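Hey team,

Sharing the SnoaL-like domain-containing protein run so nobody has to redo it. Sequence (163 residues) first:
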Amino acid sequence: MLLRPAGQLAERRADRGAARGEFVAHPDRAYAVAIDDADWAGFAAILTDPVHIDFSAAGMPAADLPRADFVGFASGALERWTARQHISPNHRVVFDETDPDTAVCHSYMYAQHHLAGGGRYLMRGSYEHAVVRTADGWRISRVTQHVSWLEGDPDAPEHAARA
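Structure output:
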C-alpha cells in the first residue's frame, strides 16, 4: 500500500474535482454535433494533433493521424449523405487516478445516415474517447468506435460515395 501525506491526497482530490467541473463542457458532447452540422473547424478544435483513430470495427485500421487528415476523412465520408444524425448518450467519464489531466469517456453510439431516394445506414455501438486537458481546454486524443450491429442497406455507404 502506498501512503501519501494527507495534504497531497487532498490536493489530488481537489485537482480531480476541478477536472470534473471543467468536464461539463466535454468535447465528446461536441463531437456528434460538429459532424452533423458539418462544422469542420469546430470539429478540428476538439481534437489533439495528432489524434489516434481506431475505427477497426468498421474496417478502418487504427492509426495516429494528423488532425487535418482525420477531419478531411470525416468531412469527405459524411458530407456525401443527404442527412445524418449522430447521437452519443449515456456518458461515463473515468478520470485517471494519478493524472487529473486525462480521462476516458465511454458513450453509446447511434449513427444514422440517409440518402435521398432511399438509402439508409445505421450503426449502433459505443465510442471510447480518451481526452486530455490542454492549455485550451479538454481535447480528444483517441477515438475508438465499437460497432455492435448495423441496420439498413449494407451498400448505402458505397452509394453515398458515388453520390
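Residues 6-162 form a domain with the Nuclear Transport Factor 2; Chain: A, fold (CATH 3.10.450.50).

Ping me if you want the raw files.
A.
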